[in-house]
């Protein structure tokens, strides 16, 4: 028990820059208190003492504002940050290393008793504040759920789900947009990932600027190839002989090369 407690405190100190000491974490972090009480409630639940388990989880909810059903399965090094308003359903499963912020609901959409009604979070999943993950599906390892997202279908490992209803972002597209914004001197990290019209317009501008940059690069490459070919040709093949003595020779030759 004490080894798990030390492990929980260490993971909070690692992930929360506001945490200053082990004693502060032990005495002032409701997410830690909720997990400690949940382990006792789950111990009662698995042995058939359902009332004792529910009463223990009820006490945890009263003292911490975090409601975890005693039947839920929670792995190691889970961090519930702030935690007020978090609800975790009976058949929910939370993998090792997950981070859950305030207002999150791991809920169900079915009323069938005994069925898998609540989501399963893989390892190292991050669930943003006030997001809702509803249903008996799986969120893959390393996935991210954006704040205020409503997720009702599986999320692949390593993906990011945002919006209501949530959509899965293509990692390659987002990475390319971030790189393009960095080249343009724009803080893409400040662009929200939701359905806000302003953020969508900013994303379109970034994509348009990146496309123009690509087209300009292709044009320069074509000009460089033409210039290299022109330098390889004899002078007589570039312009007529009579133009060589003309004052307009340089201008005419340049126009031919560009065309």
Q: Please, could you describe this protein's structure?
A:
With 259 residues, the chain is α/β, with parallel strands linked by helices. It folds into two domains: 2-169, UDP N-Acetylglucosamine Acyltransferase, domain 1 (3 Solenoid), CATH 2.160.10; 170-259, no CATH class. It is 45% helix and 13% strand. The chain has eight helices and 15 strands. It has helices at residues 2-15, 22-28, 30-46, 50-64, 171-183, 197-232, 235-238, 249-258, and strands at 67-68, 73-74, 79-80, 87-88, 93-94, 99-100, 105-107, 120-121, 126-127, 132-134, 138-139, 144-145, 150-151, 160-162, 167-169. The strands form three sheets. A six-stranded mixed β-sheet has the order 3-6-9-12-14-15. Helix 3 runs antiparallel to helix 4. The radius of gyration is 30 Å and the shape is elongated. The relative contact order is 0.06.
């Amino acid at each position: 028990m004490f080894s798990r407690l030390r492990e929980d405190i260490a993971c909070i100190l690692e992930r929360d820059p506001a945490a200053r000491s082990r004693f502060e974490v032990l005495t002032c972090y409701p997410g830690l208190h909720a997990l400690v009480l949940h382990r006792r409630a789950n111990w009662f639940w698995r042995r058939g003492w359902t009332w004792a388990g529910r009463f223990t989880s009820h006490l945890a909810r009263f003292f911490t504002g975090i409601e975890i059903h005693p039947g839920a399965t929670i792995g190691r090094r889970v961090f519930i940050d702030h935690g007020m308003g978090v609800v975790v359903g009976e058949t929910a499963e939370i993998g090792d290393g997950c981070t859950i912020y305030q207002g999150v609901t791991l809920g169900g959409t079915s009323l069938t008793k005994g069925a898998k009604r609540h989501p399963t979070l893989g390892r190292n999943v991050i669930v943003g504040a006030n997001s809702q993950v509803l249903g008996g599906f799986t969120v893959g390892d390393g996935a991210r759920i954006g704040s205020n997202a409503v997720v009702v279908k599986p999320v692949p490992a390593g993906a990011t789900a945002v919006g209501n209803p949530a959509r899965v972002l293509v990692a390659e597209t987002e990475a390319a947009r971030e790189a393009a914004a960095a080249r343009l001197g724009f803080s893409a990290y400040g662009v929200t990932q939701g359905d806000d019209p302003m953020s969508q317009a900013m994303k379109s501008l970034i994509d348009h600027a990146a496309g123009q940059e690509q087209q300009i690069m292709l044009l320069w490459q074509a000009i460089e190839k033409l210039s290299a070919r022109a330098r390889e040709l004899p002078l007589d093949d570039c312009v007529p002989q009579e133009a060589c003595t003309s004052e307009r020779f340089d201008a005419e030759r340049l126009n031919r090369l560009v065309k």
